Structures are given as structure tokens and as C-alpha cells.
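Q: A small favour: would you put together sequence and C-alpha cells for a protein?
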Amino acid sequence: MLLGRTIAAMSSPNEIRYTDTHEWVRTEGDIVTLGITQHAVDELTDITYVEMHMAGESVSAGEPLGEIESVKATSDVYSPIAGEIIEVNEKLTDDPSLVNTDPYGEGWLVKVRVADQSGLGGLMDATSYDEKYPLS
């Protein structure tokens, strides 16, 4: 273990893509699940509140789709793609700490139906993201 983490836990999951603003996306057909990365979680520290736009709302690439508050800061969450929010992780209303404990699983933020997946092509793979933003 290194600082409470195993070596395997220090790399980002390979099956998802990453943004420079520390969001991740997992694609399943025309649905994209979006969350924030472990790097973002580490920077924010203890997350106390999560507020995302509502299901049914349209989002544009590069625009905020909600915000996350922590004991340290309030940060916007940006959508890397355009589409329609089809689901918001309601579990985070009662337990925002899920983002801290499982950012790539139970701590996901929203699901978006994407009309054009070409916008996903510019996102980083896990290796590129980990090289650019190594976990300490």
C-alpha cells in the first residue's frame, strides 16, 4: 500500500475516457455515464453536496451541468458532450460521499443520451490521463 491505496487503485479505469477538467465518461451505445475523476475527488476532499441539472434538460459540450461542493471548494462539473440528461444519480442527494468513496461506480453523476458521439473522440484514454494528472 502507498498512502492508503494499492498500486492498482492508483490508475484510472481503462474502459472510460477523461477530460482536462477531470470528468470521466463511460459509453454504452448512445448513453454516456458521467462522473468526476479520482484526481478531482482528491483535490476537492470531502464532498458535502452535489447538484446536477435535471433529467430532460439539454446539455452542451463544455458547459456546466451542475456543481459539487466540498469542505474545500465549490466546483462546476462540465459536460464533455452535447445531449439530453436522461438520469441523475439520486443517491447522491442523501449521500454525496459516494463520489468520494466510489467515483467511478456508485458516485456517478448523470447519464446523458448523446446525439453525436464524434465529440467523444477528443477525450483522453486512461494512460494519457494518468500521465498528465498522476495521483499522489
